[in-house]
């Protein structure tokens, strides 16, 4: 009756009516997985003081009072104040802790009756698993409660994602590397196709892509930029049996090629983002839909993203990935004799260019 409350206010991103804020930071589970949600007012404060919070230099201010910070008696008295001016029954929740006993519940209902309430909605914390949960608290050596470390989980893949596919030559053959991002251009998944299905190189490429994707979709407390940098740092410079190219275009292995493509892709996205911000500022755009003194059409932005500068370095001096590969389109597999990725299938036989092994 006093909508919006509960899930309605969450979907509408607005006030919860006469209900106090359930929790300024909580875990919500739905069909898309588990999400950490912050109240928009707390989000503003959290963004400004995120570093201090991580280093435990400051704590959340006392004026952020949530529904779980109030006692059940406080909830009853809030409803009693509103009930004086409402003829119908009010659907306001009385939040109670897990420690509440049957006698405590009886006392709350009796108190509500004495205050003239026509009904109450009683919610004992933990009674509805899997919907809303406040972050678990642990007590340190001083007896002070602190946030429990949440184990990272893997976010489910949405039905549709968008990205780009790069063609790059590696020492084990031509690879097609697809990088998909979410709506905020944050890394989401990586796919790699190289060689023919059934080969060892194909299997390892698929496994490498799955592991990178799982890391990108994990809920570990790392920013998207930190995850990208970590993957690039671990993969770049890994060498194999041979290399391809010279100078900055030198590709030492398939993992090294993945690192180069990741760096190029997200550097380009950041460049486009900064350029768009600069253009909108200079053109006097007043809001996000392009209305104002200057108007940027979506088609123009799409055309910018599709320019071949995606395949070039920032100075446009030398292409990092050539659209027309100069090397021969040959794929190599791993030789079971020497272990190098120099086993080529040609003329109806598999031959190793490293040790001379031949299957036939």
TrEMBL record:
The keyword Nucleotide-binding applies. InterPro entries: RdRp_reductase_class-2 (IPR050862), RNR_lg_C (IPR000788), TSCPD_dom (IPR024434). Its cofactor is adenosylcob(III)alamin. SUPFAM superfamilies: PFL-like glycyl radical enzymes. It holds the Pfam family TSCPD. Its EC number is 1.17.4.1. GO terms for molecular function: cobalamin binding; nucleotide binding; ribonucleoside-diphosphate reductase activity, thioredoxin disulfide as acceptor. Residues 157-265 form the TSCPD domain. Belongs to the ribonucleoside diphosphate reductase class-2 family. Catalyzes the reduction of ribonucleotides to deoxyribonucleotides. May function to provide a pool of deoxyribonucleotide precursors for DNA repair during oxygen limitation and/or for immediate growth after restoration of oxygen. This is Vitamin B12-dependent ribonucleotide reductase. The lineage of its organism: Bacteria, Candidatus Roizmaniibacteriota.
């Amino acid at each position: 009756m006093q909508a919006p409350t509960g899930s309605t206010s969450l979907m509408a991103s607005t006030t919860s009516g006469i209900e106090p804020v359930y929790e300024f930071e909580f875990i919500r589970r739905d069909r898309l997985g588990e999400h950490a949600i912050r109240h928009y007012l707390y989000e503003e404060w959290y963004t400004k003081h995120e570093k201090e919070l991580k280093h435990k230099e400051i704590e959340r201010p006392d004026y952020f009072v949530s529904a779980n910070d109030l006692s059940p008696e406080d909830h009853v008295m809030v409803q009693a104040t509103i009930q004086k001016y409402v003829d119908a029954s009010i659907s306001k929740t009385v939040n109670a802790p897990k420690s509440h006993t049957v006698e405590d519940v009886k006392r709350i209902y009796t108190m509500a009756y004495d205050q003239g309430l026509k009904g109450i909605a009683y919610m004992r914390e933990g009674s509805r698993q899997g919907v809303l949960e406040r972050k678990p608290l642990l007590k340190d050596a001083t007896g002070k409660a602190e946030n429990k470390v949440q184990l990272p989980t893997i976010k489910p893949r949405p039905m549709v994602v968008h990205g780009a596919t790069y063609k790059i030559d590696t020492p084990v053959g031509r690879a097609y590397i697809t990088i998909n991002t979410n709506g905020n251009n944050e890394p989401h998944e990586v796919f790699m196709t190289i060689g023919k299905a059934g080969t060892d190189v194909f299997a390892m490429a698929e496994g490498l892509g799955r592991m990178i994707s799982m890391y990108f979709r994990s809920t570990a407390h790392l920013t998207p930029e930190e995850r990208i940098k970590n993957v690039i740092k671990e993969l770049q410079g890994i060498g194999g049996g041979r290399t391809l190219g010279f100078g900055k275009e030198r590709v030492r292995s398939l993992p090294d090629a993945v690192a180069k493509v990741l760096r190029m892709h997200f550097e380009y996205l950041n460049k486009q983002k900064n350029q768009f911000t600069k253009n909108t500022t200079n053109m006097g755009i007043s809001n996000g839909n392009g209305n104002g003194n200057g108007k940027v059409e979506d088609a123009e932005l799409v055309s910018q993203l599709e320019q071949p500068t995606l395949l070039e370095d920032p100075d446009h001096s030398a292409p990092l990935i050539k659209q027309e590969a100069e090397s021969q389109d040959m794929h190599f597999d791993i030789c079971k004799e020497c272990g190098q990725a120099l086993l080529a299938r040609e003329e109806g036989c598999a031959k190793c260019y490293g040790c001379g092994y031949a299957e036939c």
